[in-house]
Amino acid sequence: MNTLDKDIAGWGRYPVQRCELVRPERHSELWSEATSLLARGQGRSYGDAALNEGGRVVLTERINRFLAFDRDQGIVRAEAGLTLAELLAVTVPRGWFPLVTPGTKHVSLGGCVAADVHGKNHHHDGAFGRGVRELELITADGRRLRCSPQENAAAFHATLGGMGLTGIIGEVELQLQPIDSAWIRARHQGAANLEQLFELLQDSDEQARYSVAWVDLMSRGAALGRGVVMNGDHAGRDELSGGRRLTPLRLPPHKVRNIPIDMPGWLLNGLSIRAFNSRYFRSEGGRTAPFLVDYDTFFYPLDTLHNWNRLYGKRGFVQYQCVVPTAGALAAMQQIMQRLAASGHPAFLGVLKRMGAQGEGHLSFPMEGYTLAMDLPMKGAATLALLDAFDAVVLQHGGRVYLAKDARLAPESFRAMYPQFDAWQQVRHELDPQGVFSSSLSRRLRMGEAQ
Fold first, then answer.
1. CATH number for the domain that contains residue 340
2. Is residue 413 part of a domain?
3. N or C terminus: which one in the chain shows less Cβ crowding within 10 Å?
């Protein structure tokens, strides 16, 4: 395979680093001898998790074949480069949907495993790993291990959420869930402030399988943390009418718009964001009656805007996502939002979700509590200092930061946030004693060093 030295970045476009890229055409070419190696799917992690500055990055986008599909049991086996978009195109018309999906379908199955991604239903169904029956792990010496909760279980649990540092994920076998239609029965509820938003999310735990809240991070004072809770459940065929009922598993066509160039840095500013948020809160917060929406619109609203990360300009942005245990979650989120308000830093997108029990992966992000995610335009040292202040609040309340979104966490903070790191590190050392699999994130967090 030919190699190419190229500057690449994660979805946030910060940081940008030079890596040696290889793009295998066949599954047998996924592994090659190298002193530093990392697999990369669609590059949708936000920071430096899929970067390997000065080392080799294996692009898996062409290792994306379906290998088997049991249409009666809803079990799919595929190469790890297959995207959720490609999976959905085949399985939804046949009445099957992933147990867990993140907020974009343009992610690979391998990436979903490596980050143990979560969705709007974590409080009911857990993270992505709950649906993984088996995976193939290609180790540093080229071995191909079949890993599952029953076979090579230690490697399996270290790979879930292991950020690609235990080996290259070659294949994934998934259990899907049955659906009667491609539609979601949705309902919105507006909340005047953060306390009301928490109350509505807690109620949603009983009322809906899927729930998420949009948060107005530019609100202040008594309206701090106002937002809209969005609940949803898969709709049955009998809930549809007209043409939808005749073809319940057919998705309506969607127009995808493209951001062709980097937008000027001043486009997203406090004034424009406040104006957008006010309109959005009024329009979406008032949709209290149940309504039907196709799954694409409900789960993947930003996918209709191709290259939306260009809205933040050449300097890019950082996404900060944390989770805090239930007992201190409201206080922690209030403190974070107050610090954001005091900083004057614009924040475009805010999402709050309720999380269920701790996942099975040693480094899986979710824990029982609440998670907040926000997008911040990158403004250099001021942005990084603000995120350090957020970290202090999260640590005080026993929470953690999501590695798939991170670009700047300190190694000391990481170790305090992830108490199962030592157990993960032991398994990783057994699989890769020379530390061949490496990333810019792992070196920044000193994940190869002893305690």
1. 3.30.70.2520
2. no
3. C
Burial 268-300 (b: 16+ CB within 10 A, else e): beeeebeeebeeebeebbeeeeeebbbbbbbbb
Q: How many domains does the chain have?
A: 1
Rg of the chain on CA atoms, in Å: 21
> What are 325's two structure tokens?
């245990």
Give the β-pairing of 305-306 and 257-258: parallel
Which pLDDT value is given to residue 206?
67
* Predicted confidence (pLDDT) at residue 440 exceeds the cutoff of 70: yes
Q: Indicate whether 148 belongs to any domain.
A: no
From CA 418, how far away is CA 174, in angstroms rounded? Answer: 27
In the structure encoding, which two tokens stand for residue 204, read together? 């949603």
pLDDT value of position 247: 96
Strands 56-59 and 37-40, by their bridges, are: parallel
Report the distance separating Cα 191 and Cα 202, nearest Å.
Answer: 13
187 CB neighbour count, 10 Å cutoff: 18
| Strand partners of residue 299 | none
Alpha helices in 92-166 (DSSP H): 109-115, 122-125, 153-159
Give the tokens for residue 266. 């001043």
